What we know:
This protein is α+β, with helices and mostly antiparallel strands. It is built from 4 helices and 11 strands. Helix 1 crosses helix 2.
Amino acid sequence: MQHHAKQLGGGYLGQGLTKLAIQCKPIGSLSNTNMKDLSDELCLLHKAQYFMDSFYKHALAHSVKGLPSIKWNVAGAFIGKLTDFLLYDVFLATPLLPSGALYWEVKFSGNEQPGNNEDMIGCVVDAYSHHVLVDSDFETLISDIQGVIAPDHSVTLFDPQAHIESQDSGYWDKGPDQIQLFQTLHDCNQFCKALELEQHIPGFKH
């Protein structure tokens, strides 16, 4: 499902040239766990970008061309602490997402719903999810993937979640069960096949 980039809503405090200030309360987050939750989110953003870099290297090695430019919204992201705060004293700052009439915000997959997209960009994102699983030796699955598509078809992804074998990437993590569910529900597309991605967890039957 596609729709125009969201307009500013509740919690808006102000903005500059490259940043927005939003007051919010993360679902399930308490003041004493806020720092850990935000640290987990920042760590996952970097991990997701690491796998994106390896995805493009894998595509190059397999001579897969014509892929759109996709990146995670992590460059320059940081965790800060306020001395005079409204709700929580710790915050996560990420680059301002591109927006405008020609930009589209797209949800490619859910936390528990693997994406089986039909458009070209969506299929590449699905193949990226599959690649992460293979490249991590079936121990990591990036989920809840969403992003903003620019007029030149480049994509900026943001706010990922994940499921990992040890089930400790964050409060969203449902561990091996969700990894196995992805393998059951994911339909390999033309990019998965071009990249020669392994289809099933070794030893896992479904």
